[in-house]
Amino acid sequence: MPKKIDLMVESCRRLLRKGAKGHLENLLSKLHPADIAAVLGRLNRQERDAIFAMLPPETAAKALVDMDSLLQTKLMEDMPTKELAEVLSHLPADEAVGLVDNLPEEKKEEILPLIEGREGVSRLMLYEEETAGRIMTTDYLALPEELTVEEAIERVRESKEKEVFYIYVVDSRNHLVGVLSLRQLILADPNTKLKEVMNPEVISVRADMDQEEVARIVARYDILAVPVVDEGNHLIGMVTVDDVINIIQDEATEDIYKMVGASEEELWEASTLKIAGYRLPWLAFTIVGEMLSGLVLKHYHNTIATMVSVSFFVPLIMALSGAVGNQTQTIIVRAMATGRMEGMAWKILRRQLSVGALMGLAAGTLACVMVMVVQHNHLLGISVGVSLLISMSISAVIGVVVPTMAKKMGVDPALTVPSIATLNDIMGTLIYLSLATYLLTTLPQ
Amino acid sequence: MPKKIDLMVESCRRLLRKGAKGHLENLLSKLHPADIAAVLGRLNRQERDAIFAMLPPETAAKALVDMDSLLQTKLMEDMPTKELAEVLSHLPADEAVGLVDNLPEEKKEEILPLIEGREGVSRLMLYEEETAGRIMTTDYLALPEELTVEEAIERVRESKEKEVFYIYVVDSRNHLVGVLSLRQLILADPNTKLKEVMNPEVISVRADMDQEEVARIVARYDILAVPVVDEGNHLIGMVTVDDVINIIQDEATEDIYKMVGASEEELWEASTLKIAGYRLPWLAFTIVGEMLSGLVLKHYHNTIATMVSVSFFVPLIMALSGAVGNQTQTIIVRAMATGRMEGMAWKILRRQLSVGALMGLAAGTLACVMVMVVQHNHLLGISVGVSLLISMSISAVIGVVVPTMAKKMGVDPALTVPSIATLNDIMGTLIYLSLATYLLTTLPQ
Predict the structure, then answer these.
(1) What value does the mean pLDDT take over residues A33-59?
(2) Which residue segment(s) compose the domain that A367 sits in?
(3) A241 to B241: CB separation less than 8 angstroms, yes or no
(4) Beta-carbon separation of B338 and A286 below 8 A
(5) Residues in CB range of B413: below 8 A, 6 or more apart
(6) What are the residue ranges in chain B where pLDDT is below 50?
(7) Which one of A304, A310, B36, B125 counts the least CB within 10 Å of its CB?
(8) Where residue A431 sits, what CATH number does that domain have?
(9) Do B139 and B162 meet the contact criterion of CB atoms below 8 Å apart?
(10) Whether the predicted interface score ipTM is above 0.85
(11) Are A223 and A203 in contact (CB under 8 A)?
């Protein structure tokens, strides 16, 4: 519905220009918070702040949750700490903590004391960021197993939770023992006990489980929410499918950013200088690495001086071995992120290696022929062709081995992608120039 | 729960070796279909086929749906068409069509006539692949607006739909007029009519809407399912959140593959030769492109012959301008895919351009100093530094402009990423060598 949003943006702008505050408030009160969030995203800072200030705190809070994280952070940073705390107080603890977790450290430290008093918040803060315990909602419905279905339906009617997906069943010591859906509850005989109608095979996650793993479980079992338990299997929360969608979306974006040497922080950052700063370590690494490629060329400067045409094919070697390495590595990293490597590692590794070698053979042959045709030099053609075969095969091996080892060592595999590109360049140049030197200048002509 | 899966894989293998069919069937009957799917993914082809053949058709069907798409296709291809049709008959129309859509063309044409007789299937086939109409389920609950709440609850009890998220309310001509959740239904006064308690602001999608857009709407409004309507606003289906999760996951993976010049088809392909074949067009393009980079070097061969050290910094120029272009383009393509560009295009463009220029300035300065120190040649240092500044800035511009134009022209922006890398190489080499030639050989020394 992008068209609908366009219209709303226009109306808001017009009313804002006219100073028609009453009409504007009336219009905003009719919009879905997610639409308000989308509208705010299209306005400039001045318009945005004016309209956001106009929203009742409850609507502002909901719109904030539905917003792009970049915009979220900007609006929260612009807001006085007290007003922000007021807005956050209208949100369930998990959503308030989620918003605060996205803030820069200083602002976070300012706001935390103001919301930590709330019961739910302090409990969530016990867990690490990006774990089930940190993102769970405590807004779930748990009922004792001894309740009858009729009593349970009465409890659902009385419960203040916004939306009930599942009813979790607990024993007298709050151990999670079963689950049933609202529809199953309606279908059941009103006089039976919950423990007789519930499904005892309940899928749950531990509070310290990484959020990506939680998302995978919700996706795998096609469930709308997963209960969160502590070490003793006591029910302490629930992660819902809308959080899971955000996790899947955000984790993919973060991985993509990391794979090109950009930082995920960049997403929430508006300052050009800071963004460039985030990319600086990788930039410096590339400069040093490519200086090493330069040293390789320098080492073989006699070859280049004797036959300038050797230098013409350095870009080809670099581009092709770099690209195969990048492909292989990217595919492996993504397979890891989506859980596709689990138990498939060897199959995927073997496949990527054969593809790399086969492409090296194809590209090597093609390039060899082209060089022979263009330069009329068979030995140069063979140097280029054989170097491509070797360096593309090695790139594929590196592209498989490095992220696999990184994961084993607890390093994020996505981070290895940009640095390996540089190493591939050094390796490709070295293989090509040493081979060309041997074939073209050392061998008796 | 990867550990749990490991244990199951071991048990299945052991029982299979012992030929303990009864025990194995007993074990499998206790597993969740999603777990069976995960176990099958870890077995070799022989074990997998043996166990899959052992499953009752209904379980086989469910496991198939929960499986990785690569494995899905393999198992279906190995199965005789008639048996496959039998298995598919145990699935709702939308899931059967989804599975068939993943098959290679020949197998698809074989199986389609066998399932097209089913009412739901022929209706889904009216719509294009990857649209709301093709992926929707017809397994939803729609009730007339004139019904009372009490009658509606009775209908929910009688309905055969597996799970009810929302109750859609329609008028006498099947127009979608409202929605309410099961919990809202339970809370309402039994004697009121649905049209009085329903929420008339129902979010719906048109049957011809692209599935990515559908996923964005479900994610934006945090809903569990979205009703699908035809041009006349008649209710014809529903897309559920579990489908949305798969779409988001798969679209991200496809984009990542395309961005490195690999094909999404590769995901479902086991043959090394075919995978290499998918990557061939991009490979050929790179070879031709880098031959052009070679021609640039050849054009300036006098410069290189006069001063071999000019060639040492070609890798640096290529790597840095290529990397900035790749970063910029990747970030823009991802922003488009996640809907972040909507209305933000200019902000994002400006930001990427300034970041590119700033990085060019930083890298150019640093490289200039390093070249001066290493080569003791100020003019060479200036050539490298200034070329980096210019080529990195241009790369950023290209990285922003090309995917934006591609999208306007209806070309998938992700596909432009690998080709632009090659163009950046040619451009970088050209800028550097022409500048170096001018400064080092043309200028009076």
Answers:
(1) 87
(2) 271-442
(3) yes
(4) no
(5) B332, B333, B336, B403, B404, B406, B407
(6) 1
(7) B125
(8) 1.10.357.20
(9) yes
(10) no
(11) yes
